[in-house]
Design goal:
Blueprint: E1 6-8, E2 26-28, E3 34-35, E4 42-49, E5 57-65, E6 74-78, H1 90-94, E7 98-104, E8 107-112, E9 121-129, E10 136-142
Antiparallel strand pairs: 1-3, 1-10, 2-4, 4-8, 5-6, 5-9, 7-8, 9-10
């Protein structure tokens, strides 16, 4: 079994401040590195702070393949829309190999089971609400072991 490189979690990105917003929602992912090997399970927490809203938050995760960081993000999974995943991820989402576990209104985890070499790249947690069309995000990077 080939090993994946360390899971490196980057510093959270600066929050996006929507025009007219009453509060600043800050999305955070952990700092790394975390280490995993191919075939294992990893979860990446995504937490929201400084959010004074009461609406149920929507968590979405997107992915940019390693080596194509300027590429177009690929939809992976969402807490709101079962049709959100890109066709490349739908089989793994339907099989329960990729999912979001909601811990609270403002905290959720992306789970990737049975890690594959193709899982290497940058993951972005986007958080919004039905009442607020804009979202804030933070990014993490998963690197493979050679």
């Amino acid at each position: 079994m080939a090993a994946l490189q360390p899971l490196h979690v980057s510093t959270p990105t600066a929050p996006v401040i929507p025009t007219g917003a009453l509060s600043i929602r800050v999305v955070q992912v952990p700092r790394g590195p975390l280490y995993r090997v191919e075939g294992t399970h990893v979860f990446i927490p995504c937490n929201v702070t400084q959010d004074e809203g009461t609406d149920r938050l929507v968590f979405r995760w997107d992915f940019v393949k390693a080596g194509t960081e300027t590429g177009t993000p690929i939809a992976v999974v969402s807490t709101q829309d079962s049709g959100y995943p890109d066709a490349r991820y739908q089989p793994r989402v339907r099989a329960g190999e990729i999912y979001i576990h909601r811990l609270s209104r403002s905290s959720a985890q992306l789970h990737l089971t049975h890690l594959q070499r193709g899982d290497q790249g940058q993951y972005e947690c986007k958080v919004g609400s039905k009442a607020q069309l804009t979202s804030q995000s933070a990014k993490v990077e998963l690197k493979g072991w050679h």
